[in-house]
Amino acid sequence: MKKTVFVFSALIIALLILFQLSKYSYISGDLSIEVGIAVVAVVFFIIGIYINKRTLNRERQVSNPIDPEKIEKLGISKREYEVLLCISKGLSNKEIAEQLFVSESTIKTHVSNLLVKLNAKRRTQAIQNAKNLKILAV
Amino acid sequence: MKKTVFVFSALIIALLILFQLSKYSYISGDLSIEVGIAVVAVVFFIIGIYINKRTLNRERQVSNPIDPEKIEKLGISKREYEVLLCISKGLSNKEIAEQLFVSESTIKTHVSNLLVKLNAKRRTQAIQNAKNLKILAV
DNA sequence: AGCTTTTTGGTACTTTAGTATGAGCGCCTT
DNA sequence: AAGGCGCTCATACTAAAGTACCAAAAAGCT
């Protein structure tokens, strides 16, 4: 927010400077009005692109956030979420066990708990539900 | 492409008109230079936003297309692709069979073929690979 | 320290997934 | 008409996945 205020202040100052420049150039006659207008046009063209890009990027981030609060609300623990990430990568229980340095039994327990918490019957469904709940990147 | 050319032509014409307007207003004195510049600024600001939005939208579409050619290239048949879609929805073989009005054996055959074609060991991995190959919406 | 939650692990079992193989049927192409 | 391809289905099997229940460390909290 502070940044936005700063940028807009700079913009207004720049505009005023341009106004003054155009006046001086008109009086002194060493710069044509067309050049001044062209400068203004280019500057604001770039500003338009810049601001729009920032806005759209923000929208894009907002449209696909992973929501830590929702994870907590579902009672999914840290370790369980790690397992969920591995499942979404397409790993088997054994592979997950190797990657997290625990036994396959442990992973099975985690997965079983995850399925209950995500209200799913299978791991593939768990992935889908998790994405709908915004706790996994789509 | 035609559209782009048309838009840019219109822009150049508009700019020329603005130039002439500013000259006339300067001569006749009934419009200040500042107003002219302000108009140019606003117009190009809007143009900047418009063009940028179009470009970003195009990028967004390009960044996530499902590529029918790639499906064909992998030798995935129409029916197999239907099964793949069901898998990505998190359905079990039995549920897919019911939805497509065939036996579970048939689905198993399709899935087995899909795993080979997608170079996957499990259905969850098949989903991931398919997304990486741009044949499933991310 | 005492209590709770998390993480870990096991056994025993059921269900689902996946493989291998064979086979019949319809459609299209040569 | 014959061969190729896609779709269908079955059997028999192996391998994963998932359930139920229990239990003991480990970590966090008050």
UniProtKB/TrEMBL annotation, chains A, B:
PROSITE patterns: HTH_LUXR_1, HTH_LUXR_2. The chain crosses the membrane at residues 33-51. It comes from Flagellimonas algicola. The keyword Transmembrane helix applies. Keywords: DNA-binding, Membrane, Transcription, Transcription regulation, Transmembrane, Transmembrane helix. This is Response regulator transcription factor. Residues 69-134 form the HTH luxR-type domain. The lineage of its organism: Bacteria, Pseudomonadati, Bacteroidota, Flavobacteriia, Flavobacteriales. SMART domains: HTH_LUXR (SM00421).
